[in-house]
Amino acid sequence: MAKPRRSKMMSLKLPFLLTLFLALSQAQPHSDDPPPPPSSNVCVIGAGIGGSSVAHFLRKYSPSSTPSTKIRVFERNGRVGGRIATVTVAGETFEAGASILHPKNLHTVDYVKILKLKVKEPTASEDSLSLGIWDGNKFVFKTVSPLSSTVPLIDKLLKLPFVNTLVSFVNSALMFVRYGFSLFKMQNFVEIAVDKFVKYYEDPGSRPIFETVDEMLQWAGLYNLTTRTLRDELVDAGLSTSLINELVTVITRINYGQSVSMSGLGGVVSLAGSGGGLWSIEGGNWQMAAGLINQSDVALHLHEEIKSVADLGDYYELNSTKGNSYRCEVAVVATPLDELDIQFIPPISIPERKLQHTFTTFVRGLLNPAYFGLKAVTKIPDLVGTIEDPELPFSCIAVLKKHNEKESTYKLFSRQPMADTLLDSIFR
Questions:
Q1: What predicted TM-score, i.e. pTM, was given to this entire model?
Q2: How would you label 379-415 residue by residue, b for 16+ Cβ within 10 Å and e otherwise?
Q3: Residue 127 shares a structural domain with residue 1
Q4: Are residues 296 and 250 in the same domain?
Q5: Does the structure show a pLDDT above 70 at 420?
Q6: Domain count along the chain
Q7: Per-residue confidence at 206, pLDDT binned at 50, 70, 90?
């Protein structure tokens, strides 16, 4: 049969948002000076969900009694959304970046209402996808696959809600048999942390103004999670070694491409992203960023990268790769500086950080059961997660859509690019 069609892209996992609010009064040019560059009250560098949210809240909270705030948003790419992106594989569109949203992410819940977007909730069959934990040689744990049949009528009966509920119950029982009460301890650990995150959604008037990120985390009781690894936190919470090394590791590798040695704070966010009630937006999550920018009355500059930000005393001057200059009273950097080469004048100190990149590979074809030591592709779980082992070439393989018995679309995460020879062995 024909070789699977493949589409590769690289997306940055765990991008950090550095937001600098530097407010100074506007300088008045001398009468003999040349005409000043275009002026704005606020310039935002980056049109991802961070930059678009900044524009939204600036517009929302700008005093109505003052002239309208002028906002410019600069994006080096030709589209908004940042890592919230989609990819088209053989004419079908799939989420490529931030693909799920948490029900307690109240900002995104509000965005959907404001922008009148349509929520796409997982179907019953998607909720009951089978899971397998692969150690490189065998599946150390597998759940039951959703039932199906080649006979249309029988297959329709097997898709009834009560059947999926039964499959879900069986899988929960299998989980409990293997991991015991540690599952409930993990759930409690995550719920406590999420409740602390929710404090940030309280009315702005009920919380202090934070001068630093450390102050913000300490106020919510989350700071200590940044000083310890996720493994240390989970051991103290009483989780079993098998749960930490298997299920929790699978989750952190899927969501952030990292092991349980990652930051406790990032680890909690990763675990929260594996719970129930997760959702996405019909047509792509990137629509949130696009909608916020559209309704915030901003001047959007696509394909324009900012190469320098100069503090000129009474204002900031931004210079772009297009040779343009812009004056700003406030400059907001809403993009990961680790990935850019912006020159700050005078220089500022930016701590060096090691970021984990995740490579996303899309394949339309069919998995090779022999690679997993199996005789039939139907024996391969819908989601193949992996334990922490440097020899394993991928973090996970997930079925995005089953087209027919001979073809599906898969999404693979890996820490390094997937070579074609490797893909040829995993797929047939």
A1: 0.84
A2: ebbbbbbbbbeeeebbbbbbbbeeeeeebbbbbbbbb
A3: yes
A4: no
A5: yes
A6: 3
A7: confident
